[in-house]
Amino acid sequence: MENTTRVQPINEVKDPITQKNTELNKPQMPLIIGGLIIGALLMVYLMITQNMVQPLLLVIGLLLGYTLFHARFGFTSAFRRLMSVGNGQALRSHMLMLAVAVTLFAPILAFGYSFFGGGVTGYVSPLGISLLVGAFMFGIGMQLGGGCASGTLYAVGGGRTVMFVTLLFFIVGSTIGARHLPFWTEDMPAFEPISLATSTGLGYGGAWALSIALFGLISWITLVVERKKKSPKMAPLPSTKGWKRIFRGSWPLFAAAIALAVLNALTLMTRGAPWGVTSAFALWGSKVAQFFGIDVASWGYWQGANAQVLESSIFMDSTTVLNLGVILGAFLASAVGGLFKLTKINVKNVTAAVMGGLLMGYGARLAFGCNIGAYFGGIASFSLHGYIWGVLALAGTFVALYLRPLFGLSVPKSKDSFC
Fold first, then answer.
1. What is the pTM of this model?
2. What is the DSSP code (8-state) at residue 230?
3. For the CA atoms of the chain, what is the radius of gyration?
4. 63: closest CA among 249, 315, 252, 263?
5. What residues form the membrane-spanning segments (predicted)?
């Protein structure tokens, strides 16, 4: 277990979302009631105007956001801890999450079963220059912007003010990336997508076994690195015991890893595709650009099947609904924990948020997804591009360690314990 059940005194723990020292504060009942009302209204609207898929996805999104916040489950911080001081605790939780995910995804993808009978498709994307450049850019961007795609959403829900700036420019960068994507995918060299299950002859059973072996190998490597570097442990977060821990206090990382994998599998069975985040950002930005008279419909990105998405209501877009659910779920989790509070911003962290958001948005489009769609969803779908994304994002993280101090952002030191 990587978190503790001991309640920490208020002056010992600094919450990674609010950046304030906290213990188990009282629930913020007005915010909880307001969040529940907004959720109920959105649910009713979706039930009236959309099919049953959208309301179900809103619930899944709520649970995803709730889980992410309660465990402070991060991708950005996990990569930074490994590359800066060699701590692999959080990355090992990623391997557990992926192990559970491939175990659930394998039969779903093999038999094509979904709740609504529309078939299922994993995220298996091409291997080319766009993937390499995009994942590397994203790795730098998430370290400057203060969060990855999912981290940006749940940090916004938790009230971290600078992340609103990151989200805004994440949308801008994703929109620009959509405009430029045909150049990167059509004019730059690339190989066909490679699935460990269908492109290698292994089948889903063999691909599952290979994936589990790879996750075990990566976990072992992180343990070797930790012993060699004598890396610091992650600082515990305030929590409680028993059933109350479901609602109050931090969750163990292993519990969140399992929950996220199960919820991703439910997403796959509900909408026929894994959890994704950033395609909605390109849609939102393109809608705004279209409103101001830009001929977005002529972009190559919005041709073919995507054309209907652009012309439809954003509430018909399943990724949009999931994103709204994640933000609202994180908001409710922060309010239940008494942690929601808008934080201060300054010129340096706003500048970093602008640059980080742009890099992540642009990079996600080039790399066929973010830490969720490419890394989590890609690896869970047995796609080789998911592993390559992770390696290049780690490389981008390493570069960003030298850039963060320029914006007043901290880098963990070998003598520090950290959240």
1. 0.91
2. T
3. 20
4. 263
5. 29-48, 54-75, 96-116, 128-149, 161-181, 201-225, 246-266, 321-340, 352-376, 382-403
To 5 degrees, how large is the angle CA 59–CA 62–CA 63? 90
User: In angstroms, what CA-CA distances link 240 with 7, 20, 250, 252?
Assistant: 6, 19, 8, 11
Cα 188 to Cα 130, 132, 208, 298: the distances in Å are 7, 11, 32, 21
| DSSP characters over 9-77 | PTTT-B-TTT-SB--SPPP-HHHHHHHHHHHHHHHHHHHHHS-THHHHHHHHHHHHHHHHHHHT--SHH
Q: Are 363 and 134 in contact (CB under 8 A)?
A: yes
Other CB atoms within a 10 A radius of the CB of residue 142 amount to 34
- Give CA–CA dist 103/111, Å, rounded: 13
* Pairing mode, strands 127-128 and 190-191: antiparallel
Q: Closest Cα to residue 257, out of 104, 364, 41?
A: 104
- CA 392 from chain centre, in angstroms, equals 16
What is the pLDDT confidence band of residue 23, given thresholds at 50, 70 and 90? low
Q: What is the mean pLDDT of the chain?
A: 89
- Give counts: helices (H), strands (E), the chain: 15, 2
Q: Is 235 helix (H, G, I), strand (E, B) or coil?
A: coil
Task: Check if the beta carbon of residue 74 is closer than 8 Å to that of residue 148.
Answer: yes
C-alpha–C-alpha distance, residues 33 and 58, integer Å:
18
- Reading the block at residue 306, the tokens are 């995507």
Q: Where are the extended beta strands (E) located within 19-161?
A: 127-128
Q: Do 266 and 60 contact (CB within 8 A), yes or no?
A: yes
Q: Following DSSP, what letter does each residue of 304-340 receive, concatenated? A: TTHHHHHHS-GGG-HHHHHHHHHHHHHHHHHHHTT--
DSSP characters over 391-417: HHHHHHHHHHHHHGGGGT-----TT--
Alpha-carbon gap, residue 158 to 404, rounded angstroms: 23
261 or 13, which is more confident?
Answer: 261
The answer on pLDDT for 94 being more than 90 is: yes
Calculated CA dihedral for residues 316, 317, 322, 326, nearest 10 degrees:
-100
Quote the tokens at residue 227: 């012993």
Contact 251, 121 (CB under 8 A): no
Phi first, then psi: give them for residue 137, nearest 5 degrees. Answer: -60, -40
* In 248-383, alpha helices (H): 253-271, 278-291, 306-311, 318-336, 347-366, 377-380
Instruction: Measure the CA–CA gap between 255 and 72, rounded to whole angstroms.
Output: 12
- Alpha carbon distances (Å) from 194 to 24, 201, 360, 387: 47, 11, 24, 11
